[in-house]
Design a protein that fits this description.
Length: 302
RNA sequence: GGUCGAGUGGCCGAGCGGCUAGGCAGAGGUCUGCAAAACCUCGUACAGCGGUUCGAAUCCGCUCUCGACCU
């Protein structure tokens, strides 16, 4: 059985059943579960992020869940660093580690790596945001067109976030964003086995609906209410919370929030699928067919 | 049986002779430091048949369906 290390990455849309599947898997391989879910890191958010329950958390070693506060700034690059460090430790003890979560970019940062980029002064972004709010999208478009025409040609020119990032990099480094976008896949000291979990769309949507009802039942509104005063924080720009904040501000009634919570979760699931579907390395399974997945893994890992 | 009203894309809904409303739901997509975010694209439907007209979802006739009222 050699010294080969394996990271089993389990991805898929929200509510497809990643948590319970990973728990079984962790048990079988005596492996830890690393989260690559951009919202489950935060300890102040619970219900709305569909974290594993305390009981589930106790039944296998979990990493990164509840590791951060919503008050902290946290981004993919930091996550990549943290994850690689952690994986090194975990692989020293175990040849198999599981990673799961719904955030495609975060998973990719670990498996493929992000392009090298120096630290930027956070003040730069703050300034750019302020300028954008004052002068609008046209301003961003003009700036990026000037400092990085190459990137300007391929970005979503209507997308302020992308434009701001390009500008931020330019102002912080003096070089166009394009120069850094080498998209070179980094070789990791472990093998990655990518498994996608998927179900028929209707079934997935029914699960999303049921789970949202359960979250509400469990007190999602109270949780969001308690965080209301912090709703400006980035971590709270999150599906499930923003809708309730708007409700608390009186933008619509209770029936409408619930409708939006469900609808937006469905749309989120769809976006996740779009993201993951383009990764040809992912093998897709219905989580109901656990036996098939285990056979496949056995084949890969031995 | 009679009288009147209505029938528009999955749903709601405007149009009432020529200029493909709109909303909701849905689908597809983009993606390298805010990512559960941000952004982009997509529906020629007017109950059926016939007629009038250069031209009909819009006017006329018949048929069908639904609703209301009358006997």
């Amino acid at each position: 059985m050699g010294t080969q290390k394996f990271l089993i990455l389990i991805v898929g849309p929200t509510a497809v059943g990643k948590t319970s599947f990973c728990l079984n898997l962790a048990n079988r391989y005596q492996a830890g579960i690393v989260s690559c879910d951009s919202r489950q890191f935060y300890r102040e958010m619970d219900l709305g992020t569909a974290k594993p329950s305390p009981m589930e958390l106790a039944s296998a070693p979990h990493y990164f869940i509840n590791s951060r506060s919503i008050e902290e700034d946290y981004d993919v690059k930091q996550f990549e660093k943290d994850a690689i460090e952690l994986l090194e430790k975990l692989f020293a003890q175990n040849r198999v580690v599981i990673m799961t979560g719904g955030s495609g970019l975060f998973a990719a940062a670990v498996t493929d790596g992000l392009d090298e980029m120096q630290e930027l002064d956070p003040q730069i972004r703050r300034e750019i945001i302020a300028e954008y709010e004052l002068k609008g999208l046209t301003f961003l478009q003009e700036e990026v067109k000037n400092c990085d025409p190459e990137y300007f040609k391929l970005v979503d020119q209507q997308n302020p976030q992308r434009l701001m990032r390009a500008l931020e990099v330019y102002r912080g480094t003096g070089k166009p964003f394009s120069d850094f976008r080498v998209k070179q896949k980094i070789n990791r000291p472990f093998e990655v086995i990518k498994i996608g979990l998927e179900r028929p769309r209707e079934e997935l949507y029914a699960r999303i609906e049921r789970r949202m009802d359960a979250m509400i039942e469990a007190g999602l509104f109270d949780e969001a209410d308690a965080l209301f005063s912090k709703r400006h924080l980035n971590a709270l720009q999150t599906l499930g919370y923003t809708e309730i904040f708007n409700f608390l501000e009186g933008k619509y009634d209770r029936e409408e929030v619930i409708r939006l919570l469900k609808r937006n979760s469905r749309r989120y699931a769809k976006r996740q699928l779009t993201w993951f579907k383009r990764d040809a390395d992912i093998r897709w399974f219905n989580p109901e067919n656990e036996a098939d997945i285990l056979t496949y893994l056995k084949d890969q890992i031995g």
